[in-house]
Specification:
There is one protein chain. By secondary structure, the chain is an alpha/beta fold. 38% of the residues lie in helices and 18% in strands.
Length: 363
Amino acid sequence: MRFFSNTRVAALLLALLAAGPAWSAPTQNAPQSAQAQIALLLPQSGRMAKAAEAIRDGFLAAYYQDSGKAADSPSLRFYDSDSQDIVTLLARVKADGATLAIGPLDRERLDKLVKAGPLPLPVLALNSVEGYADNLYQFALAPEDEILRLVQWLDQQKIRQPLILSAADEGSQRLQKLFQAAWQASHDNVPKVVTLDPARKGGIVADIRDITRQDKRQDALFLAAPALARQVQPALTYFHSSLPLYSLSSAWDPTADASGQKDLDGLRFCDLPWMLEAARPEQDALYQSFTRPVSGYDRLQAFGADAWTLVKSWSALADGEPLSLRSGRVQAGPNRHLRRTPTCAEVRNGTALVVWSPDGSSR
């Protein structure tokens, strides 16, 4: 796959020009000087290349949206993060004149950077691992951010006994454990778990039927298997359950067939503002230039655009100021791990409507 296409960038620029007046991104602490050079360290082939392309497209859309009104925008240089050892590559980009690096994307290479100790230039990593290093900020679209926000939302709704609906696969088990840990950090009870079994007689519908007929102490459901939302929520509706269903953002795909979206009415989740609010100019430009990607890659475009805004607001970030971005409210936490507060929504009449914003306002 060709990673950097002049034709692709030209299409994006034309769409941005057609969008009219530039959107005003956060302007705390003026952008980098004209001599600054940003190095983007992203995989250009392999299993993460498609994700990297979405991130790259989002970054460029935001960069060009802003650079059209700024004479001192930094130059960009792209490197294949898989081309050599990441520590060696970082030394190389420093020697090439980079003043800041964005990447890597994969956890293994990021872990190597953390263990390498002080870094030779500021780095905004596009993932998160345990530990820290001088000059390193870690930024990720992590499920932990969504789960922490969901627990806060449950508290706001005075939910006291959530029931976890899980599945046997590794991903669901991980989300189940993350939710349990987040809940128990601020509550003295341990949520019960029901593992859904599509292989049983009656499948998941039978599981939901049993849940609605049994223990009435539970006052909400957390679905740790988001892919099953299109089976679980209609079953809850069919059995006239009053239990609200909460899950991860991946349970909702705005690019899916609209005819089936009403089946998700009642589903609650927290997601990027990019997915839930009115489109920004750079977002429209991306959709006009390229086919809108499925929601997972759509979110990565927002993630890439935020990477540019974080670079642009580097001093504010270092001072611990919160930034309202496309992926939520972002603020540096302990050891320069960036904390993200997403927007929360409920599906009503087939549309995801914002009900709780990162600033705390409810609708």
